[in-house]
Amino acid sequence: MKGWRPLLRIARRDALRHKGRSLLIVLLVGVPVAAMSAFLTVGRTAERTVDQEIAASLGQADLSLTSVGIEPQEWQDLLPAGSRWIEVAPHAASFALVEGDELFEGPVFQGDLDDPLVEGRWDLVKGRTAERDDEIVLSRRLADDLGTEVGESLTLRRPDRQVTVVGIAISPFLGETSVFVPPGWSLPVVEGVTGGATQWLIDLAGSDLAGADAAAVVSSIEGSFPSPRFIDPAGVAVEQPFRPQSESERFVEVLSRSHVMAAGGSARIAEVSATYVVGTLALAWTGGVAVAAFAVGARRRLREVGLVAAAGGAPGHLRSMLLADGVVLGLAGALSGMVAGIGIAAAARPHLDRVVSHAVGPL
Q1: How far apart are alpha carbons 254 and 122 in whole angstroms?
Q2: Which of 40, 172, 232, 297 is surrounded by the fewest CB atoms within 10 Å?
Q3: Rounded distance, CA 280 to CA 274, Å?
Q4: What does pTM read for this prediction?
Q5: Cα 253 to Cα 164: distance, rounded to the nearest angstrom
Q6: Splitting the chain (363 residues) into consecutive groups of 10 residues, what average pLDDT does each group show?
Q7: Residue 120, phi then psi, degrees to nearest 5
Q8: If we measure between CA atoms, which residue out of 163, 179, 161, 166 comes closest to residue 94?
């Protein structure tokens, strides 16, 4: 290191002497590093964890059950004694709202957003849950589209009633316009729809959340009712639409935590692969920019390099001089770019919940 110490001091002194040239090189290196740092930091911060993936589908429940044409009592009798369930998506229920010359329509979700079973599936970000017939909670996107805040009144066209917005909620899977209403609300049914899927969240009494207990209940329910899957000629299970073709069609689909984890694992492998490809291309482009920037600085030092060579400097000395220049300016650009990128990510962090529609963890 003794031989490198004077070279690095010379490189630092030269960088300070030619501030304009040094700043140009630092910027050429730092800007792409800042962009990559900000992108990666924001991406990792906004990325859902395994627990959030499960909560997005199941909340804190053990099972999610979607049924068509089946009375709840039929599958409830198959659950362990002491189990609890809540209905979250009644079939064929929707709302209609006219604001100015625009019509807003979307699904209605029913239930208490303070119920522990829905935590992570829907999260209140402002206000409180709806408790009376004249109160509703809006999805973040609908609130933004309407320019509505908590405490304001709205006139629904379906159902025809005046309501007060008491809260705003976000959900990983529901970026569309939707409303949340309290249990017992008289829900409108979409005209022309003879049936539809009803969704429930189920908390199994005394069960191993992702283990054999839940698997046994899933197997029991799916063995008692038709499944909305069929096997195509290639041997792949394909989902059928939940809307039945006739009023007599009946089926049940049950999702457990193990189902969600398996599906999320496949998606993550694809995401990681894509991230590596994009990251490699970005690094290659950054490397090209850095080489070009460094070449500009090296060319400006030809006279100094020539004097060293004329004084008896060996080729190794000349290479070390140029390498020291690259180390000083490259580190300055990379470190400043990283600091700037993380600063941009920190500034964006308070707005990520709104952008990605789910609760985001620490930076």
Answers
A1: 19
A2: 232
A3: 10
A4: 0.58
A5: 35
A6: 66 73 80 85 79 77 83 85 81 75 81 82 85 86 86 84 88 70 69 63 70 72 68 42 52 78 55 66 73 68 71 71 79 90 90 72 78
A7: 95, -30
A8: 179
